[in-house]
Model the fold of this input.
Amino acid sequence: MISKLLITITTLLSPQFAMASEGGGEILDLTRSGMGIFALVLFVSAYALVIFEEQLHLRKSKPVIVAAGIIWILVALSYQALGKPNHAHAVILGNLTEYAELFLFLLAAMTYINALEERNAFKALRSWLVNKGFTLRTVFWMTGLLAFFISPVADNLTTALLMGAVAMAVGGSNKKFVTVACINIVVAANAGGAFSPFGDITTLMVWQKGKVSFFEFFAIFIPSVINWLIPAVFMSLAVSKEKPEVHDETVQMKLGAKRIMALFLLTIATAVSFHNFLHLPPAVGMMLGLGYLSFFSYYLKKVEGRLLSDESPLDVTSHKHSTVDFFHKVANAEWDTLLFFYGVILCVGGLGQFGYLAGISSFMYDGLGHTTANVLVGILSAIIDNIPVMFAVLTMDPQMSHGQWLLVTLTAGVGGSLLSIGSAAGVALMGSARGVYTFGAHLKWSWAIALGYAASIAAHLFLNGKYFH
Done:
């Protein structure tokens, strides 16, 4: 009874405004209530732990999952005290639906990536690049170019790790080259992921929300190219033309690798068709595509089982005939990342129920204007992370033209390149190239990346004027 009285007092102390909430009635302004302030402090504290994940060795999903649960307790108690006992339940179901779609989509994509990795598809590409005897400057451009064009299909994190491994294998003890090559790879992977629904979590969320159609994403292809090319040109001048030592190791792809690539492309086509023609969630199409892989894995297991039981000698060193296990690939999905998205979506959704997103939306989109606000979103994504920032924008749902939605998709995708901690690609490479590619090393080239960021925005505003009406 006392606790309920305290809740009522703290929530009623703040002015209230009405705002439509999807499935849950109106949202009240509880930003200055005790519960609302505690929820905000809790989220900031949890995200601080996420930022220092590498130093603390604490998985990023853990603090946000705990924060999400507590924030929704606060939401439920606050609205119950105001005579709205069903509000939190109705709203959280919407958040869970959004997460379920994202989860199933990413689970299918990650399983395909794991299958290709197990079939040595990425190792074969790396060994081919390393053994070609290219100059360091050529490797710089090739790793950047491949990162730009692989990330729209695979995610930018996987792409950055793959190309980063190539740069480190070629560069060896040449720390200057490895550093610049890693920065180039991060910028290229983020830029390449910006013009495809499959290239980044933020673009996927925008597509699934129906703000931008699949083919409209390609309107920001040229701005994305500009975003990568401008800093790449400046950085390439710091790379020598010497030829590194050639390695003799050759890696062959395992049985079925090329067919898995084809199935992955078919899965993407299925997801796009589900969304464009059947008006069904793309995640359902991706799960159908996961079914393709499950049956092909069954076929591979049977074939490889016969090869392993053959009486003739089997060259196990060729790595062509190890058995494949579909559910092992599912189990090896990046569960920390998947659970992190759960925590972020529910945290941001919960804060929205206290009125914080409405206040931010009013300040940014009504006060500063759409273009300025969307440019700031990219800068914010370099400091915080583009996933919660983009989810907040989608939850606020400002009334914008297609051109502005494309702009915020571009800025949220490439803005993270401004700092090494601003994107999953940068954080991952800081871990794999520890001590060489660092926050400080990246910061030295932030001026060139900022030029590319500004130029890409200008290019979008100039080239895609028809989308702003």
